[in-house]
Amino acid sequence: MFDRIPHPDAVSYNTLLSSHFANGDVDGARRLFSEMLIRDVTSWNTMVSGLSKNGALEEAKAVF
Fold this sequence. Notes:
By secondary structure, the chain is mainly alpha-helical. The protein has one domain (10-63): Serine Threonine Protein Phosphatase 5, Tetratricopeptide repeat (Alpha Horseshoe), CATH 1.25.40. Helices cover 67% and strands 0% of the residues. The chain contains four helices and no strands. Helix 1 runs antiparallel to helix 2 (26-35) and helix 3 (41-53) runs antiparallel to helix 4 (57-63). It is globular and about 35 Å long.
């Protein structure tokens, strides 16, 4: 995906992160988050929310 976006920013990363969770791809979201060069408050909130909504409550608490 990011080979098409020369300079991904936080919005690009967060949109893709949210998409992973929306499709139930928790492992993909975890991988993306670990590789993200830019993490902002929205990134962390997306992780907590996405993990919670996908049943990974303990991990969501740990991220929080």
